Amino acid sequence: MRSLVLVFVVIITNVACSTTTEVPYRSSEEGPFNDVYIVDHGLHSGIIINQDEIPHALLPEKDEFSNARYLEFGWGDKAFYIAEKPTLALALSALFSPTVSVLHILEIPLLIEEYYPENDIIKLQLSKTKFKNLLRYITDSIKRDEYGNSSPVAHVLHTNNHFYLAKGKYHAFNTCNTWVAKAIHAAGVPITSDHTQTSADVMSQIRNVK
After folding, report:
1. 90: helix, coil or strand?
2. Distance CA 134, CA 141 (A)
């Protein structure tokens, strides 16, 4: 119940905070490391990765973002995510009944702190193995046909902002922030997706990781 209350509070308030980029986690293995950024949007969190470090074979969709310096990934309820004017009714529907999900990929052409000057940002420094594990989790979230083709949600495609049908159902106990926590855990960072419904849950866990 506490987690659901927090979700509603975040939906209503969506308070921004000033940018702080910190490094609370670095892989214990020797470098070189790949930098991965977790951004807090108030309602949800996202994962930001340098586009040049993403292999084409894992994510052929990267070619659709010609001006990208970084790509941001998020996962969530299709109807709410792509709505021009998200409503409380859409949010409630997404929370209380399993719904179709999409993977969101956003092109970031600038330095992250310049693109998100008022967001809380955390940097993870991952070993090559952990970084590959993270990439596989993200790319495996895209629903593909037997030929490996993704399914774009065509009517909301923009030059820097694409949505693709994704695996999994969205609901109150499997939110966009749950997905981010699962992705970070899949990389090998010791956090959990249990009871992780809000972006604050994600950011707090990362900051307290041992």
Report:
1. helix
2. 11
- Distance from C-alpha of 46 to C-alpha of 175, rounded to nearest angstrom: 12
Supply the DSSP string of 136-165, one letter for each residue. HHHHHTB-B-TTS-B-B-GGG-BTTEEEEE
Q: What is the pLDDT of residue 143?
A: 95
pLDDT at 58 over 50: yes
Alpha-carbon dihedral 149, 154, 160, 163, rounded to 10 degrees = -60
Between residues 200 and 96, the one the model is more confident about: 200
| Parallel, antiparallel or unpaired: strands 70-77 and 120-126 | unpaired
Q: What's the rounded Cα separation, in Å, for the pair 96 and 159?
A: 32
Average pLDDT over residues 33-54: 94
- What does the buried/exposed string (b/e) look like for 127-155 if buried means 16 or more CB atoms within 10 Å of the residue's CB? beebbebbbebbbebbbeeeeeebebbee
pLDDT confidence of 6, banded at 50, 70, 90? very low
Tokens of 173: 């106990």
Question: Please, is 23 exposed, middle or buried when counting C-beta atoms within 10 Å of its C-beta (0-12, 13-18, 19+)?
Answer: exposed
